[in-house]
Amino acid sequence: MTDGLLPFDRRMEIMYMLSAKRSLTRRELALEFSVSDDVIDRDLVILNRYLPLEEEYKGTRIYLNRDEEVVLNKCFKYLNGQDKRTLKSILHKFSTPK
Fold first, then answer.
1. Can you give the pLDDT at residue 76?
2. Residue 92 and residue 44: Cα distance in Å, rounded?
3. Which of 43, 50, 52, 59 would bridge with 23, disulfide CB 3.0–4.6 Å?
4. CA 42 from chain center: how many Å?
5. Element at 56 (helix H, strand E)
6. Is 47 helix (H, G, I), strand (E, B) or coil?
7. What are 85's strand-pairing partners?
8. How far is the C-alpha of 11 from the C-alpha of 22, rounded, in Å?
9. Model confidence over 64-89: pLDDT tens digits?
């Protein structure tokens, strides 16, 4: 558990956890940080200002921001073979739904 963190530190940890795991429930986060679901809701509102988060039935998902998506699409034309397929998969999984 990572209880007793300042709000900023907790939010940074949440960001890292979401980046690594891609999907976590509010309840899982609240238990991890020994805070209420309401505190996690406020943290996610603040994080959503900087990271596009998608609400899902069982968790929260992070998408590429617009600048990241643009840069990866520019790189796409310089790749071939497996690298191109891998980048296409990343863009498909993490681009913001249109």
1. 84
2. 24
3. 59
4. 16
5. strand 53-56
6. helix
7. none
8. 15
9. 778 888 888 899 889 988 888 888 88
With beta carbons less than 8 A apart as the criterion, state whether 43 and 62 touch.
Answer: no
Six token digits for residue 21: 């795991």
Closest C-alpha among 77, 57, 53 to residue 65? 53
- Please list the residues that pair with 54 across neighbouring strands: 61
Task: Please give the Cα distance from 91 to 83 (Å, whole number).
Answer: 12
3-state secondary structure of 19: helix
The one-character DSSP state at 59 is E
pLDDT score, position 31: 93
pLDDT for residue 58? 46
Q: Is the CB of residue 7 less than 8 Å from the CB of residue 47? A: no
Q: CA distances (Å), 74 to each of 14, 71, 81, 87, in order?
A: 30, 5, 16, 11
- Whole-angstrom distance, CA of residue 15 vs CA of residue 22: 10
Tokens of 72: 């990866």
